[in-house]
Design brief:
about 15% strand, binds xylulose-1,5-bisphosphate, 7 strands, DNA polymerase, domain 1, Rossmann fold, binds magnesium ion
Length: about 260
């Protein structure tokens, strides 16, 4: 039997609810700064989240909502410039510390560290966004707790492709069967299970309607001792919140 050796965390929607009040606001500030009358409200952003990657999301928006915007020919440079501005705005939003970690994340990371289960990150966002979020929520020493930060353009194909998880496993020098992933979206679940990794889903408002059939368990959040989680799908657990032991038990069901 493969014992759980590492937990691989997704970032946006999993570590923290960064999409509605973080990334979405940063995109809108970059558009306004560029003099564009584009505004992504919560509803349209929920649709655009089907496309992972900020640059890819802008391109999709251009090609499906704004073809008449006057950008001629190859606008990859314009998109790259807009995305760089967006990332700058995102860092400012995160540094303002208005976005906190989701319930149970800080506690679970502490438990995993105590049990010497390795930590890693596999995300579509940029490594600089990961560092900004970890610094703002766990302190500047915390980024070193993660043996691998697999992020953004380090792989050719973003989630739902499994590339980012394959890259993470390679960096960890571990097999998929040694690991468990925590994700929040259908795209993320397709990526992690596509790499053969048992996956727990902590859904959120943007992903509540997603298909999580491949998850070992779906909960509304990790929970805390005084704030139980709700099991949406999967085997009931012998605890009211997700602990390092819960992850080892879920992992053992599949590996
Ligand atoms: C979610 C994403 C990212 C963010 C925006 O990443 O799809 O693209 O929405 O970040 P995760 P960027 O895999 O952590 O759920 O603009 O940096 O792409
Ligand atoms: Mg996510």
């Amino acid at each position: 039997m493969n014992h759980l050796k590492a937990v691989i965390f997704d970032v946006d929607g999993t570590l923290a609810e960064t999409e509605r009040d973080g990334h979405r606001q940063a995109f809108n500030r970059a558009f306004a700064e560029a003099g564009l009358d584009w505004h992504w409200d919560e509803q349209i952003y929920g649709q655009l989240l089907a496309v992972t990657g900020g640059k890819e999301r802008i391109q999709y928006y251009l090609e499906n909502f704004h073809l008449q915007c006057g950008f001629a020919g190859d606008y990859s440079e314009i998109i790259a410039s807009l995305h760089a501005d967006k990332t700058r705005h995102y860092a400012q939003i995160i540094e303002a510390k208005t976005i906190e970690l989701r319930p149970g994340i800080k506690r679970l990371i502490g438990e995993l560290r105590e049990q010497e289960i390795r930590l890693a990150i596999a995300t579509t966002t940029t490594a600089e966004n990961v560092t900004a979020l970890i610094n703002a929520t766990l302190g500047e020493a915390a980024i070193s707790w993660f043996d691998c930060i697999a992020a953004g353009d380090v792989v050719p194909a973003k989630k739902p492709a499994p590339d980012i998880y394959h890259y993470c496993l390679q960096q960890l020098q571990l097999d998929a069967r040694d690991c468990l992933a925590i994700e929040d979206s259908a795209n993320g679940l397709l990526a992690s299970t596509g790499a053969g990794i048992t996956t727990l889903v902590t859904l959120n408002a943007y992903t509540v309607e997603d298909d999580f059939t491949q998850a070992i368990c779906v909960v509304d959040q990790l929970g805390e001792p005084n704030a139980p989680c709700q099991v949406i799908d999967g085997s009931p657990m012998n605890t009211s919140y997700i602990t390092a032991q819960s992850l080892q038990d879920l992992h053992a069901q599949n590996n």
